[in-house]
Design a protein that fits this description.
The protein is an alpha/beta fold. It has two domains: about 140 residues, Medium-chain alcohol dehydrogenases, catalytic domain (Quinone Oxidoreductase, Chain A, domain 1), CATH 3.90.180; about 140 residues, NAD(P)-binding Rossmann-like Domain (Rossmann fold, 3-Layer(aba) Sandwich). The chain is built from nine helices and 15 strands. The strands form three sheets. Strands 3, 4, 5, 6, 7, 14 and 15 form a seven-stranded mixed beta sheet that branches. About 50% of the residues are buried.
Amino acid sequence: MSDTFRAIQLSKTDDGQTSAIVDLTENDLMEGDVTVEVSHSTINYKDGLAMTGAAPVVRTWPLVPGIDFVGTVTKSEHANWKAGDQVVLNGWGVGESHFGGYAQRARVKGDWLVALPDGISPARAMAIGTAGYTAMLCVLGLERQGVKPSDGDIIVTGAAGGVGSVSIALLAKLGYKVIASTGRASEADYLKSLGASEIIDRNELSSPGRPMGKERWAGAVDAVGSHTLANVIAQTKYGGAVTACGLAQGMDLPASVAPFILRGIQLIGIDSVNAPLELRQQAWSRLASDLDMDKLDAMTQSVGLGDVADFAPKILAGQVRGRIVVDVNA
């Protein structure tokens, strides 16, 4: 194993920030009790924000970004891990305040790691990544509220993105009828191939709407926020549930209390960054059993470290379909 390894490093400048591929050593890594030889990472919406500086995601400078990685433990002072273990990391401030996955090596707290499930390859684990893991958390949230396929449709907003694509594949395999909301009409065939039964234009939901609308769906996975989330809530059936995990349209929620007190709607916040270990393990176990890997492969493209800077603005502009795997050795 070489003393040096390649990594993307973000640095703060008077004009904003810069991104470069650099050679680092383990002495450059931050504190942690487990060292991992990273094989793959991915590009999530938050990674796009970090790489471009479009939002203040990065809180430590300089920083190796990348909120996800998968790899093999090389050194461990943590009781749960030993050299040779294959592990996955999602969140915990990695790629924000702690060196992340856009590097061939990482050092983190062992408490942040989850074992790579049997049946999921390292590359597929990053095709899932935070986006897919978040999608599974949303499905688990709907299930906890008792939303069943027989209760009615489930709407997925931001459907062609990472969270949306995996959500559709998961929900369809579990027997739900899925309505996909997208601004990209050209992706209709793609979304139907994942399992969507109906496609609607996001413009139906993205403008200010009525406090209460016609009851259209039993549940929702929303990665958009703002007026879209407000309209999704307003059109959710009596006793339904809405999971909220993103803010692509905005952080605001210009909604009314009416659907909550007149229809008993549940709004479930989904946090992927600091979710407890037991929930993470449940999500990854369910992904191994409930995600159609052929559909995952169909929504995935692979790039190298040198391509990340080019793809970051594209994911923010909604120009990326599905998931991107970053092979850090390519």
